[in-house]
Amino acid sequence: MKKILYIMHIPWGWIKQRPHFFAEHLSNHFQIDVLYKTPLKVRRENLKNQNNILPNVKSFFQFPFKKFKLLRNLSFLNKFFIRFSLSQKKIETYDYVWITSLSLYPMISHLITHKTKLIWDCMDDELEFKPIKENKPLLSDFLTTEKHLMERANLIICSSEYLSKKIQLRSSISREISIINNAIELPSTTQKEPISLSERQNLKLNLIEQIPNIFMYVGAISEWFDFESILKLLEANTEVNIVLVGPNDITIPKHKRIFHLGTVKREYIFFYMKYAKALIMPFKVDELIKSVNPVKIYEYIYTGKPILAPYYEEMHKFAEFVHLYNNTEEFIDISAKVLHNKMTTLKNQEESRKFVEENQWKNRCQQILKILPKVT
Question: What is the pTM of this model?
Answer without folding.
Answer: 0.89
